């Protein structure tokens, strides 16, 4: 894997509308197939003098990163936004996970009703569609992606296996601290989605959220 970390400093005359346009344009870069993962955000402003915006981009290798640079959406992003809104940047690149796993590609769950489960995972956790799998015109599976965390979840029609996994926590999603868990559970409450109360887990707190087939999606804090 080839990783590029880019810290940006806004131009002095860049307005908030300019910066928001820059963020939206960066989001559009996900359409470039060579880009494996993208995370970005504003500086937390804990220390004076920091650069003001950072992006972390992952590619399968350096050759893929070079193709990304030459891709038309990236060229347009540079000319229409970066050259106008950014005053300075610092770039760090490194290679990691050579000949070793770099993460989970996706997790697949059986579902008795793919459309119902797709809607639920979007409503509960913010997953969005990435790809559909149809057989003879009938929806049999979907690939979902979480836009903030670069997580992928696949759902495949299989009612028998869905029943067999009911009550089992096949998937565990991470949140930062207890306050993040509480905020997520509050959003689930607002959406009318049942969940358990938080309990002490391994080095943190955990709660379970049953999906439409009864699979327990566990939410666990990192601290």
UniProtKB/TrEMBL annotation:
Residues 103-222 form the VOC domain. Residues 2-94 form the Stress-response A/B barrel domain. It comes from the Bacteria. Transmembrane segments: none annotated. This is VOC family protein.
